Structures are given as structure tokens and as C-alpha cells.
Amino acid sequence: MLNLDFHPSGRHLLQIPGPSPVPDRILRAISLPTIDHRGPEFAALGLKLLADIKKIFKTRHPVIIYPATGTGAWEAALSNTLSPGDHVLMYETGHFAWLWVKMATRLGLAPEVLTWQGADEVLPGVAGWRHGVQAELIEHRLRQDIDHRIKAVCVVHNETSTGATSDIAAVRRAIDAARHPALLLVDSISGLASADYRHDEWGVDVTVSGSQKGLMLPPGISFNAVSPKALEAMKQAKLPRSCLAWDEIIAMNADGYWPYTPNTNLLYGLAESLDMLQSEGLDNVFARHQRWAAGVRAAVRAWGLPIQCADPAVYSPVLTGVITPPDIDADAVRRLIYERFDMSLGTGLGKVKGRMFRIGHLGNSNDLTVLATLMGCEIGLKLSGIKLAASGVQVAMEYFASQPAGVGTNKAPPGGHTQIAA
Ligand SMILES: *Cc1c(COP(=O)(O)O)cnc(C)c1O
Questions:
Q1: How far is it, in rounded angstroms, from Cα 159 to Cα 369?
Q2: Domain-by-domain residue ranges, the chain?
Q3: Is 189 in the pocket of ligand 1 (CB under 6 A)?
Q4: Which of 96, 98, 129, 213 for a ligand 1 pocket mutation test, highest count of atoms within 8 Å of Cβ?
Q5: How far is CA 385 from the centre of its chain?
Q6: Do 2 and 238 meet the contact criterion of CB atoms below 8 Å apart?
Q7: Are 422 and 11 in contact, with CB atoms under 8 Å apart?
Q8: pLDDT at position 419 over 80
Q9: Cβ atoms < 10 Å from Cβ of 412
């Protein structure tokens, strides 16, 4: 039964930083009949996926695919490599980094949390949520850890709650400079397939990712890319694990199967997503995200509102956080835009709830959907009583007009595709 309240006319603009809009081509792939997950067709699909997903992580080593959300893959990363009571050095860049700390505590690990310590006039008390990881803080702490009690360093690549993308190669260099054996565990749930990411080259031991952000799939599958050093650590790791244990999954994956029923239809979607990303080329994918992000930031600056990420060196290509004036509830602005214009924006999470909203500009978009998003924001901000310095939409239009699109932007891949961008 169609509920018209949930299905008004036209396309809903789903501009949250995950789940991102799912391309029609992927929705169609998911709608095909479910097959026998122990049959020969499934094995062919499984082997192809397990090979192709490595190209997205830029790794030669195993990538494990779970029928779980990103949070499940976080748990797998910790429980497959660590033992009860292990010290882990975690870096708080925002809400998602903080949730990972909370999980580590619940699993019986001993997390120690670093964060950026500078002053901040716009959001006093949450300065750390306006910056990326300062690798030198990690190096300094690891140098003090002479008897190597710290077993892992955990950082978030693209902090989805703030819009800051940390320099993972710099974290690797910091660990190496301190000559410390800790594992490097990275959450790139919202970075993968939107922002440059290189599991092997950056010396990451476990990369955690998920389906519903840059991979443009519905939520429900997640990933661990695993280095040989992480596989070695697994042999000593004593945290309990069963459903998400690497050893059994890797053993069954050799023939293209899983130890249990994987989410067959989402895997059809993943195959489609990997084809789309590979035919466009990852560099083109990254370039169009950078371009949209620059256009959105130009608009926010024109409005005269502060961007949540205070360090231009780590602006996220995936989303932009917009800080509202102190007397304006950002969630009220979001609600107004949702009710009047049928567009979803990301809420401020945790410590920044009500102070900011997030504009997602990832995945299945184009210049005009990004402009429509900015239009919805601009009208909503005005209707909320905020005096904007100038029209951000006008500035973004000029930006997109003056910047030629990246090679892959809005072009059909060689095989051709028929979807119309949402
Ligand atoms: C979305 C997200 C998560 C949580 O993933 P779920 O699929 O909701 O469990 C964790 N970390 C980051 C950085 C994310 O963007």
C-alpha cells in the first residue's frame, strides 16, 4: 500500500552522508531473484566480488565481506586482532571516533583517547571535532610507550560527524617514526570510494568500511581489509568472536562461499557498484567529489556561516558540516527543510547536536542535485530567520560553471548505463 506521506511526488533529496542515494542501476541489480548461496553461480559471483573489492581498497591482501553494518565490521576489526585488557590508542575526531572508543570499552579493551587540544571560538569545548588527526600527538604518545603496551592505534579516515578527512599516511609515518609495533586500524566507512584511500601503500593493518556511503548501496554489508600483520595478530588475539571471525570466512572465501548465508541480493548490488566505479575510474570518482565539496563550501562561505571543519587541509570531499548561529537550532532548520522541500540533511551528532547540520555530497549525484541541495538549504536557512550574507547558490552556480567537470562526471561508462541520477 502506497503511503503518500512517505512517497510525495518527485524524488526525495537524500543528502545525508550515508545512506547515500542508490543508483537505479544498482536497485535493479538487487531486485533479481535470490539464488542458491551454495551453488555454482554464487561461487562465480563471490570470487569476482572478492577480487574486485580489493581494487577499491587498493590492497593485494584479503578483504572480508560481512552481512553486517559498519559497526559490525568495527567489532570484527577489534575482536579479531586484540585480547581482553589490551591498551588501544584511539583518536577522537568526532562522534564516530568516540563511538568506536565506547565499543572498545564494552569489549573489555583499555582505550586511551587523544584529541586536538587547541582553543576554538566558534564551538568552545569541541575544538577536537573541528580538526583531523594530529599525527605528531600519536608519535609522541607511542614514543613514551617503551614496553609496547599499546597494541593498536585506531583512527577514523573520514569523520562523517564533522567533515574532516585525516591524513592516514601521516599516522603510519608517526607509528614508524616511534618504531612502535602497534597495529593501525582505520575506519574508512564513509571515505572509501569517495575519498582517496590506499590500504597497502599507507600501511594500514585493518580498514573498516561499509556499503551505504561511497559504494552507493543500501546499508547491510561491511568490510575489513586485512594486512598480513593483522592476520598474524589474529592467531594470538583472545577476544571472543564467532560470526565475524576471519579464519572461517577466509577459508570458505577461497571457493567463493561464506560459512553462513551472505546477503545475496546486496552482493548483486555490490557487483554493480564495483563495475560502475571501475568503469568511471577511481581518480575520476575522487575528482568529482572534490569538485562538489568545493562548490558546497563556496556556498556556505557566501552565506557567511562557519564550516564545521576548521582546517582547510582536511576538508572532506564527502560532506560539509554547517554551523548555524548560536540562537538557531540546526535541527529545526533541518526539520523545516524536510517538511517543506522533501530533503533530508544530516543531523548534528553527539556534542554538536543542534549546533550544526551536515550536507552530504557523495555517490550518485551530479552538479544539479548538489545545486538543488544548496537551494533547499538556502531557502530553509532564510525561512529560519537567518540573515545570509549573500546567495550561496549563486556562488556555487558560478563555481560549477567555471570549473570543467572531471572526466567521468555524468558521463556514461563505456558499457553504457541507463540510470537517471536521483
Ligand atoms: C556510517 C559510519 C559508521 C557507522 O556505520 P553503520 O553502518 O551505521 O554501523 C561508522 N563510522 C563512520 C565514519 C561512518 O560514517
A1: 23
A2: 13-22+281-402, 25-279
A3: yes
A4: 96
A5: 32
A6: no
A7: yes
A8: no
A9: 12
25-279: CATH number: 3.40.640.10
**pLDDT per residue over 238-283, tens digit each?**
999 999 999 999 999 999 999 999 999 999 999 999 999 999 999 9
**273 Cβ below 6 A of ligand 1:** no
* The domains spanning 13-22+281-402 and 25-279 adopt the same CATH topology: no
C-alpha cell at 139: 608519535
CA distance 65 to 54: 11
Fold of 13-22+281-402: Aspartate Aminotransferase, domain 1 (3.90.1150)
Separation of 126 CA from ligand 1 center, angstroms?
Answer: 20
Residue pLDDT, tens place only, 273-319: 999 999 999 999 999 999 999 999 999 999 999 999 999 999 999 99
Q: From 133, 188, 190, 207, give the residue whose CB has the most ligand 1 atoms within 8 Å, as the site to mutate.
A: 190
Best residue for ligand 1 mutational test, from 160, 186, 194, 319 (most atoms within 8 Å of Cβ): 160
